Structure formats: structure tokens, C-alpha cells
Amino acid sequence: MLQYCVRKQFLWADYILPVDESLEMSVNYYADPNGVGYPNGVKNFVQTHAKIITIPFGYDNQRFKRKLNLKNEYDVITIGWVTTAQVFHRKGFDLVLEAAKNLPNVSFLIVGMSKEIQNTFYNSISENITIKEFVDHDQMINLLSASKVYLQLSLSEVCLILSAKLCFGSAYLSGLM
Question: CATH assignment of 74-174, given 3.40.50.1110, 3.30.830.10, 3.40.50.2000, 3.40.50.300?
Fold first, then answer.
């Protein structure tokens, strides 16, 4: 039912305002191990008469500031919105779990992994990993402030998080090409 309603919204819309051109129409070749590519964007899924205008979003660099009164609780933080196995791999969480196993003296924080995915990959989660499901913006600012390194191994990403993370003054490691 939800899929039907979403399709109707796009069909009846006069305007669609994505935050990145890739959300209009693109193919993600990086995330597909077969190299065929996964279709992305509204035009790959819905026929629409709506005018599509890309409006890049920004962030408030006054809000996204490191809180200096917080001590570093975590060596490495990674953030995603992971609710399926496909997204788990696309966001590089499998690689983060592998890195944590190989670096037992490094503390990792993973933010945004659903309980279902945690249960699916339970045997891969080592003791040096802390997982938080989904957090609000204020909690996110605290967690980013309490981390030394931001690790982004996603195969497909809109790079707003890079800009926001750099405001926190910590190292940024990425697997993006």
C-alpha cells in the first residue's frame, strides 16, 4: 500500500525537489558486485509530468560544531541508515566490522544499524564495537564530537556528511572513489 501511495504522490506532483541530481535519475555501478548497476532516482521508477528542480541542501555550520567539553569516547565512528542487507553492504558496514575485528584495540561506534540488521550480522560484531540504532541531531553532534575519526566506506553517498564532519575537526577516511 505504501509503495502505491508513494507512486501516486510522484504522479500527481507538480514539482519534485531532490537535493542531488542523482536522485532524479542515475545508476549506481559501485554498489552492484555484478557491475550491472542499481537504478537510482525518481525517473527510474515513476513516469511523472512533474517539473524536477534540484535544490542542493546545506547545513548549518554553527549548529554542526564540535563540542569541546566532550572527551573522545570512540576512536572511529561510522554513520548510515541501514535497514536491509543490501544497504548494509552498500554503506560499507561489512568492511567496518572486518576492520574492527582486525583492530581489536580500536573502539568503533556504528550509528544507524537497525535491530534486524544487528541480529542478522550478530556473529560479525566484535567486542570493540558499540552500536546505536538511530539518533536525533543533537545526539549525533555529541557522538561526532566524541569521536577521533569519521570512517565512510559507503559505495554511494551524497557528500554532505563529509562537509558536516569536517566542521568537527577530526580525521575523515573514505572509500568513495
Answer: 3.40.50.2000
